[in-house]
Structures are given as C-alpha cells and as structure tokens.
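Section 3.1 - Work completed
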Amino acid sequence: QVQLVESGGGLVQAGGSLRLSCVASGRTFSSYRMGWFRQAPGKEREFVAAISRGGDTTYYTDSVKGRFTISRDNVKNTVYLQMNSLKPEDTAVYYCAPLMSISWITPLGDYWGQGTQVTVSS
C-alpha cells in the first residue's frame, strides 16, 4: 500500500511560480517511476510529468515542457514539481502517483492522494 500527500499549491498570478511536493509512505518509493497529474474542473485527469526511479530521466506533456521540472529525493520519499511561467490554463488540482513500470504516463493502480489546488489568475 502506498499513501501519498501532496502540498505546495496556492493562488498565483500568471507568470508566477510554485513548487509542489508529494511525500510517499513505504520503503519501496525508489522502486517506482513517479508521475504528476492534474484535473481541471469538468475535465478528465491528465498526465503532466514523470521521472525515472533514479531521477535521471524525465518526461513531460507538451504543454508544460520548458516551464515545469520534475525531480525526486529518494531519501526523503518525495517527488517535486517546480512550476514556472504559470498560465491560467494550468489551474487544476495536482496529484502525484506511482507509474506502471512499462509506461511513463499510466498510473499504477488507484493510488491517489488528496491533491493540491493550483489556481493561476490572469
């Protein structure tokens, strides 16, 4: 069982920055690829970014490339999402999740935290 706690969201003006954190329980954190997802009101949850087990490989959806950076600290069981140059269309609840070993965008099972709200004003 994996438990996830996201934090770091808030209200920010367009062009601003936020850093999200996700702390995972369990001793096997480093054995999972990890991803960030987001869900805007009235929309499906979508993939945002992913990172390999060791943190040396990352993958992003096109809309955030060059603006967002995913990283992880396996000692702290934490994955981060640095978000710069935020746009109103980035407004959503952001979630982290472990990923299937054969995919960069598919969550493993149904492990979701409560999420953290990001609101970007224009």
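Second construct:
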Amino acid sequence: VQLQASGGGLVQAGGPQRLSCAASGLTFSNNPMGWFRQAPGKEREFVAAISRSGSSTYYADSVKGRFTISRDNAKNTVYLQMNSLKPEDTAVYFCAARTAYWVDSRAKDYDYWGPGTQVTVSS
C-alpha cells in the first residue's frame, strides 16, 4: 500500500491550499480515510476523516468551517481543501487509510500512512 500526499508548500495567512493524497495497493473505496498533522515539538493530531463512500465527514474543532475533506473513489484520491489558513496550521500533513469499516479520529486506528507534506503558513 502506498499513500502519497502532495500540494503542500508556503502560503500566506488567510489563503487557501489544497492537499491531495493518491492511494495505491488497496481497494480504495473500502477504506475510510483521514488527514492528520504534526507541528514541530507537538504530537500528531487529527484533522479530518471521511467515510468510505464520502457521505460522512468529521473534523477537528480547530479546522471546522475552514477545511473540507473529500474523496474521488474513481481516482483513488482523497483531498483536503484548506481555507482561511492560520500560522498555527503550519505542520506536516499526513494522509492515512483505515482497513476497518468505521471512520475514526484516532491515529492509532489507522493502518497505512503516507510520508506527509509540509504546509507552512506565513503571517
């Protein structure tokens, strides 16, 4: 299984950024997907998750109303649209796949991880 996140970079505060995560080696439509992030010196934290069909989505309170997770099962890709970015959103963002049926917000319950992409928000 491979998960490859892309779309990170340097963005000004208030601006948008869109992350993509392409999956291979799994039956993508069978896997709930999640985005997590880790800032320097901090633990990895949940950002957003989406059900297998995409009909259900979940967000951390810190990003609710600003970030949108979506997926395209025909393209084996999950997205994270980030709007109104803040300096505190600066982190390495990881996508992850879960083999169990239900969506989850706990990192330990995800089975496959990509290498992450850096997002830096300048003030």
